[in-house]
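Narrative of activities, Objective 1.

The group set out to show that a structural description can be obtained from nothing but a protein's sequence at a throughput compatible with the screening campaign. Below is one input-output pair from the validation batch, recorded exactly as produced.
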Amino acid sequence: MLEKMEESKHERVIEEFEALTKDAGRVQIETLRRILELNGEAEYLQSFGLGGRTDPESYKARVPLVTHSDLEPYIQRITDGEESPILTGKCVTAISLSSGTTGGRSKFVPFNDELVKSTMQIYRTSFAFRNREYPIKNGKALQFIYSGKQFKTRGGLTASTATTHVFRCDQFKNTMKDIMSQCCSPDEVIFGPDFSQTLYCHLLCGLIYSEEVQFISSTFAHGIVHAFRTFEQIWEELCDDIREGVLSSRVTVPSVRAAVSKLLKPNPELADDIYRKCSRLSNWYGVIPELWPNAKYVYGIMTGSMELYLKKLRHYAGDLPLVSSDYGSSEGWVGANVNPLLPPESVTYAVLPDIAYFEFIPLREELEEQELGNTGSTIVYKELKPVGLTEVKIGEEYELVFTSFAGLYRYRLGDVVKVRGFHNSTPELQFMCRQNLLLTINIDKNTEKDLQLAVVEATKLLADEKIELVDFTSHVDLSTDPGHYVIFWELSGEGSEDVLRACCDRLDLSFVDAGYVSSRKVRTIGPLELRVVQQGTFHKILDHHLGLGVAVSQFKMPRCVNASNAKVLQIMCNNVVKSYFSTAFC
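Output recorded for this entry:
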């Protein structure tokens, strides 16, 4: 009876979603109206003379497109404690921090109850669709989730990552219970101050509840890969803890130690079972279903920069399906994965039309002729006007713009998305890349996606060496004349000189942007450089960001390290063990 009630509850969520998306255009107009009415007294909106208008035409005619830097002075006043309505009608009481892994500095973003509400809506929606395909029982989830540090701004507002704000609210616990996704680990582990100790305890708690675990998840795919790379090193110690019922001395935080010790009882039978299973695995293939036999899938964000980790994740997951989670950012949510059977490489996100007001800037370049006085005219490119949610076209790419309930108005998120189809009248988006992550020296423009494709192509040459690419990033080196691309690789083993030289050439030839190819041919861009760094280098990058207060749940490895990210660049350069220059285009 209870299972029938749960199933009915999830079906109601789907019915609500279907109703919203059948008339997405009308819902968008209503959503904008609600946002503007709630925040109509805000100083920022008042300055544009809307005069109470809430229709999309008036709004777009008066309120400009902005980036975070345009709103920074307003956000700074909020963090300093100014209590007047600056960006929102109600005073902001919390600040969300972006990861800071792209530019080397975290951005401050207003956080409010509406963002918590939309987070729970996204969780419930994607779970309802996921549970149709992969039904789970009311067990537990092995979730590798981590809270970030909290601090008070000068004005007394609580500042932390968006995930930390969410993990600490009552709605999160209630929602996890409703969607049968309660974490194996106690709160003391999730909110523990030491990442390594928290990871150890997550693994231990997961093994204690191994028969009850229904799925394995982390915010990002690399979190799961890192967890099981660590497991390879410490599994015997975990077995000892379970066998003896005594927690390892490596866990020293009193609150964490006390909470996990309450769960830990001597269980030599379970310890022996884990030991036998691990001992018979071949290179840890399929370790997840072997140790968690009732798990139905592995879940996390697996798109964009996370695609690098899919090969290793599939190795650990064996036959278990990988399901990519939902599409959002520190600024807010965009869409839910309502097609969970799609592989991560093809996943799309159906936009929820009531969580924000969305616009899309077409990325087709439009030519126009400009008069240059007596010198005649020239052809230049101009940016196209944004279109609405229901006006996008299948197959086209767009830059995403949104207006949120938390004080971001016509905010350029910086993400490039492609429309793959429609769910009723709301678009299904595929995340392509971050727009500002560009490798460029003169006329060349290579995006994060272009870089990733080049790396994938080059790493094919490593197969015969039986070594894997652990991680990578890039840098534009302008200290040489001409400037050139630098690609940093960390490998799982020693590669031969001939193969690494071939990889370097393959990387160079795999950037197919016309501006890059032509510039290489005429030598206005120098030969690409491949720098191999020592093992553990990318973990040092993680440690650096953790030291800055970034939560592991929010950490993404920067794929392009620019000059403003000097410390990360220094770590990379100080750990180079081999360097190769491309001989392509010679």
